[in-house]
Specification:
Layout: H1 3-16, H2 22-37, E1 44-46, H3 48-55, H4 60-72, E2 76-79, E3 88-92, E4 94-97, E5 100-102, H5 115-118, H6 126-137, H7 145-154, H8 159-171, E6 175-176, E7 180-181, H9 185-215
Antiparallel strand pairs: 1-3, 2-3, 4-5, 6-7
């Protein structure tokens, strides 16, 4: 399967198809990536949550509407599964052949393309996808308290502040306001430091203000009065 010709042809088709919106295209590209990960089989299984996450689709209704649209308009074949333990199946129709769209997937290459022409085309291995996801997840949550201590130390903050940060967010499930999941704990810790610095500054100003008030004396004090 010559995926370069396929993508060129399908994008040309996208540009001429007024029925499509950006969500259809985003979903198609997500499906193409999973097709790539599975080494371009004739049919492959999908997981709804994974596809929605990759396509950046937040609504199940939007996801199913766009999936059915791509199926109706002959970009894919969608074979839904009603078994909760078994994913639905997708068959990607091939573009870029001499006849436009091809459903011939009996061979490993597009009709008219030799196997030598396909050699050297870069596929994205599944293991690389896992590494990318792992790298993206690295900063989401700290591995342990020591990692937080090391980060605060690099920022020249005392260990006690690192412990406060770690204990606070551990107790509320690493969510901002108890609702929004933390995406990057290091960014959240820097916000913690900024707030702590502001609180410390305010406390210092209050203490100085109180001292000045205590030092104030009345200019008309009668020192002849007994103590």
């Amino acid at each position: 399967m010559n995926y370069i010709k396929h993508l060129n042809a399908v994008f040309q088709q996208f540009s001429m198809d007024s029925r499509l919106n950006p969500t259809h295209i985003s979903l198609y590209l997500a499906l193409f990536q999973f097709w790539n990960i599975h080494r371009f089989p004739e049919v492959f299984y999908i997981n709804r949550e994974e596809v929605m996450a990759m396509a950046k689709i937040g609504s199940k209704a939007t996801y199913h509407r766009c999936l059915k649209g791509l199926d109706n308009w002959k970009y894919i074949y969608y074979l839904p599964s009603h078994n909760p333990y078994k994913g639905s199946q997708i068959k990607m129709l091939k573009f870029g052949t001499s006849g436009g769209t091809s459903t011939d997937t009996s061979s490993g290459t597009t009709p008219g393309t030799s196997s030598e022409q396909v050699v050297g085309q870069a596929l994205v291995p599944y293991i690389n996808i896992n590494k990318q996801i792992e790298n993206d997840y690295k900063h989401k949550l700290p591995k342990n308290e020591n990692e937080v201590l090391d980060f605060f130390k690099k920022k020249k903050w005392p260990p006690i502040e690192a412990k406060k940060f770690f204990n606070h967010y551990t107790s509320i499930g690493w969510k901002i306001g108890g609702k929004i999941k933390i995406v990057d704990w290091q960014a959240s810790s820097e916000n913690w430091m900024l707030k702590a610095a502001e609180i410390k500054k305010q406390q210092t100003e209050n203490e100085l203000s109180q001292k000045r008030d205590n030092l104030k004396t009345s200019t008309n004090k009668d020192y002849g009065q007994p103590l």
